[in-house]
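Quick start: read one record
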Amino acid sequence: MKKPKKFRFTIARILVIAGLVVFLSAMAYEAYQYPWSTIFGGSQAEDAVPDPTPIVLDKEDAGADIVDEPEASVSPTPEATANLPGDETEAVDPLSQYVQLGILKIPKLKVSQYILEGTKRQMRYGVGHVTGTAAVGQAGNCAIAGHRPYPFRYLDKLVSGDSIILKADDHVYTYTVYDSFAVLPNETWVLNTVDGEPYALTLITCTPYMVSSHRLIVRARLTDVDGMTPGAFYGTPAEPSSPAAEETTLPEATEPALSVEEETISPSAPQVSEEPSSAAGLPVPEEISPSPDSAYSGEETAGEGAFSEPSAAPETGSTDGGEPPAA
């Protein structure tokens, strides 16, 4: 009777130890994958993370070709889908060709992935460019989707100012994050052109983690191309709105001139109304009342002059229009 009890105790202890080993291994792997630079900071330069290793296709795709066609994203028709990419659970037949567009790097998250044309089976080997959106580094909204937990496991850790680097056609395009939000899977409007952003990048992945009921959207704008501004690289004005802004300042410059004239006129009324205090015998009210320009200023100065000069008015008006008494 004692042996079976001891045997059960030994089995239970082995299971507990095995569970602890699995748990600690998972924690160690999570700690290794965690982007600690989001806490302690780090370089966000292109060389901060190495380029990805060459793609190794599965057995099902063994006969497929991997080709480099940077311009392939211009001609294909948009993907016919009612939902945003990110959670493809249905079986997808193997492809005969995979088009490799470039490389995506997020130094802060230690992400380095190939960009493939399409968001179906292509996302097994990297991130997928949403067909029909703008090409990498070109004008418009370039949309790229990736799976979670890998490689976009920590995409929600990006904040405004972080860098996203795309390498394509021997050029390095640096995008700067400026917004992130969550949408429903059917809100495909996020693939449209972004107002006020001529060179936009939209990253898409599932959220919340391990639930995938929504899509996490991270928006970034192109800020650098091979060390130059987009305007300098593409030969367009870097700030096309600046000349208009200078022209609009011209009418604003004339407004202070008008206000100064109004300010120089308004003090003249108090100066005239103050003259009776220095020369109490002059018939000043008869000279102010005919002036049309002092109609509005007279109301403002009425509180100062109408009740401060009544003592002088009866003295000058009691003679029925006669001459004032000699001083």
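Confidence is low (pLDDT under 50) at residues 70-75, 238-327.
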